[in-house]
Amino acid sequence: MDIRYLRSLAGRFPTISKASTEIINLSAILSLPKGTEHFVSDLHGENEQFLHVLKNSSGYIKEKIEEEFGNTLSEKDKRTLATLIYYPEQKLALIEKQETDIDDWYKITLNRLLKVTCRIASKYTRSRVRKMLSSDFAYIFEEIIFENDVNHDKDDYYNSIISTVINIGRAPACIIALCQTIQRLAVTHLHVLGDIYDRGPGPHIIMDTLMDYHSVDIQWGNHDITWMAAASGHPACIAVVLRFAARYGELDIIEDGYGINLVPLLRFVTATYPNSPGSNFNIHYNKETYNEMDLESDRRIQKAMAIIQFKLEGQVIKAHPEFHMEDRLLLEKIDYQNGTINLDGKIYPLNDTDFPTIDPADPFKLTPEEEAVMDRLVSAFTHSEKLNRHVRFLYDKGSLYLIYNNNLLYHGCVPFDDDGNFIKVQVGEKHLYGKCLYDELDTLCRKAYYLPPGPEKTYAQDIMWFIWCNKNSPLFGKNKMATFERYFIDDESTWVEVKNPYYKFLEDETAINKILTAFELDPEKSRIINGHVPVKNKENPVKCSGKLMIIDGGFSKAYQKTTGIAGYTLVYNSKRMFLAAHKPFTSTEEAIANEDDVHSDHMIVENFPHRHLVADTDDGKLIQEQIADLKELLYAYRQGIIRESSKYF
Fold this sequence. Notes:
With about 650 residues, this protein is of the alpha/beta class. The strands form four sheets. Strands 7-3-2-1-15-16-17 form a seven-stranded mixed sheet. Strands 8-9-12-14-13 form a five-stranded mixed sheet, with no helix packed on it. Strands 4-5-6 form a three-stranded antiparallel sheet, with no helix packed on it.
């Protein structure tokens, strides 16, 4: 080994004793059960439902309560304990109003919470659990959590700790701290398989939560990509983001969530579109939270941004013939005099012909007023401190795909042709497919945000728009995005978006093995975990004998009429891998009051014949490398190649 590296390592482990101790510690960690991984996807701004699923770990915490107490607690007591763990502050406030002997309840509850903590903490080192405990209580409860159940010599000591906590008025704070510790210990690592943004009211709240989470990675979805590109200043993606927000009555996300001033846009649409758009621009809003006084202005904003979007997208398409999207230059296919459009040789009447900003001679050119509005919006998006903080986090923790513990995670699809072959996608001068395509697009996404202004940045930004809606994009996976047709053509046959052939090969083992091999994984030991497409209630999300799982969470209320459920999440622990099917979520208040868990059913994907250990994971491989390095250091010490530091003797 390089002597310079060994000397650097000796700075951290300056004696044989310290290096040996670290080898012993690391070797012991390899024998611990692997941590629990939690997989969620397609959150679409539904922050309350996401937070509930996150807090209950898709039913994993309830499972641990059941393991600990079994028939010794009633179902009602177990539900109450679970709800307390999920929402400690809110549930505690309700219970304190109802209990007649609150001190007795504190004592019982603290003991129950400590038992659950002990069970969940059993597969972690003491030092890791100590880090997870609240600093206010770490010292006094560390011994209780790691006590030996067989040895009762210190029972009075432990009981005295709990009694004193209650007597000095610290029981509520302690209960809250233990509940939060259980939540943190229940899941070692969280995977988010894309589409945090659009449709729901709280993507910014979800992002704040993820930034505070102890361990997380994100695979970008096509909706996330538009927000990332918008933050970089790409006008077409800004138009997409605003149109979506207006369509779902969620412009508050833009204004209040991210501090972006929409007053200039409102003035523009009021002056430019005095006539309210037709029903094709209706707002899909939440009746409980939406202010219906905003309906007309939001419909105008939706139409204005749709027209601006089509213009800006046309400019991108014309600038990049290699995108092969000339068929989406729809504004130049309109007969403005007769109010019709020619699609693939067939003439369709338009249901709305009020186009005050479109010049038929140059339909993709923005008017001076549109340019002024977009200039302001570009400046506002690129200078929004909170938006850019969230986007930098998406870049830091995110990627187009991830290989983690032999699982291949991505949102969308790997583009196939009808024969089950990879489509070679042109990116610049290259024609790429599989892993190489993902890697190149990932690099360009980062350049789009981090490069200074110039042609290279502009090209990378246009690629992010390509990822949003091109038929060969791995994050889109359809032959077209029929936004224009849905707005302006009543014939629903024009609305059809044909899925990439990838989706017809989900049960084809040859095709799935081809993907795994392209990403340098062993098809016999690896799986694909896939987001993006909502799974219906009666559809099996486990494909190809367990080699691929679709876990679109179906969080978006817009999908739940079709799916019948709120989708699936996945849990992978040391003993098994299982899917949790979720009921549509009503509200946090109801979940607390009714003590409802959002998950409805578990589907076992695989029970492992042998418990998976840390040694079997990617982290385990890194630890084994560290152990090998430390053994080299021990050899160097013992051979006199490197001297021990005498000040540590």
